[in-house]
Amino acid sequence: MIPNLIRSTRGTALVICFLPIIGINLSYIIAASTGTVPACFPYLDGCTSISSTGRNPPSSLVFKPALFISAVLMIRFWFMTNPWLDQLGEQSSRFRQSLIAVGAIGGIALMIYVYNLGTDGAIYRLMRRYGVTVYFGFTYLAQLLLASRLHKLALQGNNHNLLKITRIMLTLCLALLVIGLISIPVSHFMIDKRITETVIEWNFALLMHGWFFLAYKAYRCAPGPAG
Fold first, then answer.
1. Which helix or strand (DSSP H or E) is residue 194 part of?
2. What is the distance between the alpha carbons of residues 185 and 64, in angstroms, rounded to a whole number?
3. How far is it, in rounded angstroms, from Cα 193 to Cα 182?
4. Would you state the pLDDT for residue 121?
5. How far apart are CA 185 and CA 18, in angstroms?
6. Which residue from 96, 74, 95 is spatially nearest to 224, judged by alpha carbons?
7. Cβ partners under 8 Å of residue 141, min gap 6
8. 74-108 pLDDT, tens digit each
9. Tens digits of residue pLDDT in 1-31
């Protein structure tokens, strides 16, 4: 079933919504059950980071493949937006190529992060830190660019269903921006910031991955050549 899904843009979007969410949460359940990480509700309690849930076996055997496959599919998804936008009437090839570049950089950064997770050494820590930062930053930027352009195209094409979806996509992007801005003073000014940073991380990741479900819905409202 999954191979059939990822042949289409909307199917790819659906898989990269649920695969990382399921992979991360299942990894946490495994890690908590084996005592590798504390047992809590990390979205509210922030008892452990996302990275900690997938750093060591057996949870890493779920975490790493799920996120690595997600990264590959994310890169594929951003490339597949080119013919989709073209069919919707997007005339700027520069915009389409820029969107692909930004999204692909985010996917590559996730691959780098996953590859270096669980390794020791200053260089590996640096690769993990910058990998996850670039992943979140560039994927969010690509999501914002696509949502805003789809919104514009929906207005031009008088596509009311797509317009409703893009408004939700943009609202979610705004929520992600607010969460990101909140994390700045938390990181720089809070004394006991670990728990708050971890809560922000879990919820930001959940919303960012959930955004791809809206992309799936958008594609159903305005299918392209690879639908």
1. helix 194-221
2. 31
3. 12
4. 72
5. 31
6. 96
7. 102, 106
8. 999 999 999 999 989 999 999 999 999 999 999 99
9. 445 555 688 899 999 999 999 999 999 999 9
Identify the residue whose tokens are 């004394």: 191
129-149 tens-digit pLDDT: 788 899 999 999 999 999 999
Helices (H), 8-121: 9-33, 42-45, 50-53, 60-88, 93-116
Could you identify the residue written with the tokens 């392209």?
A: 224
Per-residue CA distances from 130 to 105, 122, 147, 226 (Å): 12, 12, 25, 33
Measured in residues, the chain has a length of 227
Q: Which DSSP string corresponds to 1-17?
A: -HHHHTTSHHHHHHHHH
Q: What angle do CA 146, 151, 153 make, to 5 degrees?
A: 95
**Residue 217 amino acid letter:** K
Would you say 16 and 209 are in contact if contact means Cβ atoms under 8 Å apart? yes
Spatial contact of 170 and 148, defined as CB atoms under 8 Å apart: yes
The type of residue at 10 is: R
Q: Alpha-carbon distance 64 to 88, whole Å? A: 36
Q: Which amino acid is at 61?
A: L
Give the CA distances from residue 91 to residues 131, 148, 149, 153, 223, in Å, rounded to whole numbers and listed in that order: 33, 15, 11, 11, 17
* Integer angstrom CA distances of residue 182 from 19, 188, 196, 198: 27, 11, 10, 13
